[in-house]
Amino acid sequence: MSLRSRLAILFGLLALVVSAIVGAASYQATRSEVSESTDRFLESRAIEVTRGIREQPGNPPLRPNRANTNDLGNGANGANGANGAIDDAATLLPRLPFDPDAIVQVIDRDGVVLSSGSNELPITDAVERLIVERPRPGESAPDRYDDVEIDGTSYRMYTRALQGGGAIQVARSTTENDAVLSVLVSRIAIIGLIAAVLAAFAGWWIARRTTRPLRRLADVAATVADTRDFSIDVPVGRPDEIGQLAGSFREMLTALETSREQQHRLVLDAGHELRTPLTSLRANVEMLQRIDSRPDAALTPEDRRELLHAINSEVGELSNLFTELMELATDSHDADATMEAVDLAEVVSRSVERWQRRVDRQISLNAESVMVSGNEAMIERAVTNVLGNAHKFSPPGEPIDVVVRDGFVSVRDRGPGVAVADRARVFDRFYRADATRTMPGSGLGLAIVAQIVERHGGETWVAESEHGGADVGFRLPTI
Predict the structure, then answer these.
(1) CATH (domain of 386)
(2) How many separate domains does the chain show?
(3) Whole domain around residue 273: which residue ranges?
(4) 49-74: pLDDT as tens digits
(5) Which of 73, 146, 328, 444 has the most C-beta neighbours closer than 10 Å?
(6) 233 in any annotated domain
(7) Residue 227 lies in a domain
(8) Which CATH number belongs to the domain containing residue 125 in this structure?
């Protein structure tokens, strides 16, 4: 399933759930409001009847002098005072209005129905307990609400106790309320479905617009996979996360293109550098074969030593070149290096001592303790390569000066120096100036230094020393 379909379904389900929650809340609120409106109507009708405000035409009240001025309960008290014990609801109530919008029923204190509308209302146990109640003047009359069913029709019934005994009941059909609520449910369902469909369409449309640049990126990735062309243009043009992804994708392709170019250049340069010692070895081996094929031919001891020395030198050159190629081509030392706080002066001092034991040359060291974050083995490798470069170009017997201060490592020799035009490329792989092409070396030593220093977040430089030679070094960030 595509992302567009998933977002469309998600938006639709979300709209459906929200519609269901809002619809349920609206239904409950409407149902409660309708129920309260019915209850208010029933209570108001009962009060109007008991106070004689509503009368039935053609049936004059039994006590007209009290019906419009006093509550029915007060009439009962007056009757008791005048006649001794006359408090029956039949003699106190005015004629009862039985309007078609409600059923009104009057019950005396013995539970006998005195008057009723179109249908007789049920007298439940709770109503019977209410009949015997005789609220005093000024007190709130006890009442209750019930849901009843008459002839298969649901009614809401209100019962209110009378002061002289008995009760008045008012009921109203809830069919109209049920119809309103049923229509409300249907409309909520329809609105919810419409909202879900619209939300699903909106989700599909949004996903389509959102995934359009992603599809372009996918097409670019497929093109790169098919053609191996890392220079293909990647459209960005967006400030959001997708634009950032496109930018990262473009940077990745640029890095891959750069890596491929470097690998290609490395292979070409390595092939060029390997060709010279291999050609020399082949020539020396062919010479030995020719000598061995001629019985009368013989090598003098001096020629043999010279030939063996040449072969050994070329083999050593090949070995060094292979080691440096592996060191430069593999990034394992970069990926697995552990960075920690180290004293740069101590690391340089160990490298200088080790180099002095290796060669017969004076190396002066002027080092101040400074802490840097780095890998000791990698820093020692960088210092050793810079020292080897200075030793190679320094005249015999001339000293080498090493200075360590504030994160700077400066190695100064007294050789021919580096021409200004060549300084920008000294740290490139296999680069050797025209004046040094005949000298031994692979041109990888300083390239390894540049790689190590870059891994540590530092920088390299080449300048002229105060003695006219080369000043080659690097700087590491201090902590």
Answers:
(1) 3.30.565.10
(2) 4
(3) 241-329
(4) 888 776 533 243 433 333 333 344 43
(5) 444
(6) no
(7) no
(8) 3.30.450
Within 138-240, residue ranges assigned H as helices are 175-227
Which stretches in the chain have pLDDT values below 70? 54-100, 236-238, 266, 269-270, 272-273, 276, 295-299, 317, 320-321, 324-325, 327-337, 430-443
Residues 6+ apart with CB under 8 A from 147: 154, 155, 156, 157, 174
294 lies in the same domain as 377 = no
Residue 66: inside a domain: no
Burial of 257 per CB tally in 10 Å (0-12, 13-18, 19+):
middle
Tokens in use for 256? 């891959």
HEC string of 215-259 equals HHHHHHHHHHHHHCCCCCCCCCCCCCHHHHHHHHHHHHHHHHHHH
CB neighbour list of residue 107: distance below 8 Å, 6 or more residues apart? 89, 113, 114, 123, 127, 131, 166, 167, 168, 169
| DSSP state at residue 70 | S
Among candidate residues 119, 121, 61, 129, the one with its CA nearest the CA of residue 90: 61
Through-space distance between the first and last CA atoms of the chain, rounded to whole angstroms? 53
Tokens of 276: 């010279």
pLDDT tens for 328-361 read: 665 544 555 678 999 999 999 999 988 888 787 8
For residue 341, the cross-strand partners are 373
- Asked if residue 215 and residue 292 are part of one domain, the reply reads no
Q: Residue for token digits 């994160």?
A: 407
Q: Which residue has the tokens 């009862």?
A: 96
DSSP-derived secondary structure letter, 277: H
Are 94 and 155 in a shared domain?
yes
CA–CA separation, 164 vs 74, rounded Å? 8
470: nearest Cα among 432, 435, 423: 423
Q: Are 44 and 185 in the same domain?
A: yes
Bridge-partner residues for 82, per DSSP? none
On whether residue 397 sits in a domain, the answer given is: yes
Q: Where are the beta strands (DSSP E) in 313-444?
A: 340-343, 363-367, 371-374, 400-405, 408-412
